[in-house]
Amino acid sequence: MATVEYQRIGKSFGAFNIMRDISFLIEDHQFVVLLGPSGCGKTTLLRMTAGLESVSEGDLLISGRRVNDVHPRDRDIAMVFQNYALYPTMKVYENIAFSLEVAKLAPVDIKRRVEHAAEILNLTPYLQRYPKELSGGQRQRVAMGRAMVREAAVFLFDEPLSNLDAKLRAHMRTEIRQLHNRLRTTTIYVTHDQIEAMTMADEIVVMRAGKIEQIGTPDDVYDRPASKYVADFIGSSAINFLTGIVVANQGAPAVETRAGLIQLDPSLNVTTGQRVICGVRPTDVTVDPHGSIVARSLLIERMGHEAQLCCEGPEGQFLAIVDKSARFETRADIRFSIAPDKVHVFDAATENRV
Ligand code: ATP
Question: Which residues span the membrane (predicted)?
Fold first, then answer.
């Protein structure tokens, strides 16, 4: 049972500050994903939590106890690394048992814990094999087994699936989430893969250049991105952005863009003349001969269950998810409509949601 709390955490390497003012609380049992592009500081925040990196500013609390200066061994955490860090000369059993042997647990307890973890992780048939005799997914499970047997209060995962192929990655993310549903150990999981974040997290912490951009459930960050940056980062096809000026149209606000008029939800807090950026997901764009947005078709990418129509708009690429049987002429002007409640509006100057 554990909470993790960051209170105004900052980090500098020498004179170079890479993170400041990180504050949030991870509740007991939560599965929290730190998400952001390479270099945004997510691994550093995880390593500070583990005690592998010092905290330059602020307080780090695990279950209410300040652990800034507590040795990694005494923080009651277990970490799974990207490269698994298995010992190649030890069999699976020994790899999983290693930390318990170092901690001098009774052999009978070690055996019980290793066998229990192996059973949960479907590793029982492989206990006498060496890591090199395992598949990538099995190695990944051994790495999780090593964390599990320690019965730590917090699990930390650092991009644990990035060395696996796409299919196995999808499978392992389900397994890790199922494991969490069974064990309910407070978990912090670092990734730059928004699909992993969306499918696994109770809460996502979106990071940008050493700061938090938004914290929310997967639905929060998808349906109500706090900034253009978050809207751009979340979603499996790239969101379309169209810039324009707010005008009044038929008693409601609308945005005049170079691709056409976008009607907005009347409840939005915008002012006439305001320069804004409209974000519209390709799934929220409908091909409609009476639509007010125009873009020129370039090609259609068939993805099995649906298709993506790639167009060229006045501000660059414009994407629409369309029926897979749809046919379009190349380089034809296509009209689209967009429901007002599907438009994400950001102030053009601040790029924050209005
Ligand atoms: P990635 O996904 O590429 O691992 P990340 O979001 O996890 O990226 P970090 O590894 O936390 O990012 O790095 C954040 C920033 O801190 C980067 O600009 C990086 O260059 C810098 N940094 C990390 N470790 C050190 C170090 N030991 N010394 C100096 N700068 C560092």
Answer: none
Rounded to the nearest angstrom, the gap between the alpha carbon of residue 342 and the centroid of all alpha carbons in its chain is 22
Task: Please write the tens of the pLDDT for every residue from 30-39.
Answer: 999 999 999 9
What is the chain's length?
Answer: 354
Q: Give the CATH number, domain containing residue 309.
A: 2.40.50.140
The three-class DSSP label of residue 335 is strand
CA of 91 to the centre of ligand 1 (A): 33
Cβ of residue 225 lying under 6 Å from some atom of ligand 1: no
| Token couple for 242 | 């169209």
Number of domains in the chain: 2
**Is residue 44 lining ligand 1, measured as CB closer than 6 Å?**
yes
In a domain, 352, yes or no: no
- In sequence order, what are the residues at sequence separation of 6 or more whose Cβ sits closer than 8 angstroms to the Cβ of residue 206? 35, 36, 212, 213, 214, 215, 221, 229, 230, 233, 234
Residue 38 beta carbon below 6 angstroms from any ligand 1 atom: yes
Last-in-domain residue among 233, 255, 270: 233
What's the CA gap between 242 and 228, in Å, rounded? 11
Domain closes at, from 215, 233, 251: 233
Domain that holds residue 155: 4-233
Would the CB of 43 count as within 6 Å of ligand 1? Answer: yes
Q: pLDDT tens digit string along 138-151?
A: 898 899 899 889 88
Q: Does 305 share its domain with 195?
A: no
ipTM score for this prediction: 0.94
Nearest atom in ligand 1 to the alpha carbon of residue 159 is 2
Global pTM? 0.91
Q: 40: CA distance to ligand 1 center in Å? A: 7
Does the Cβ of 158 fall within 6 Å of ligand 1?
Answer: no
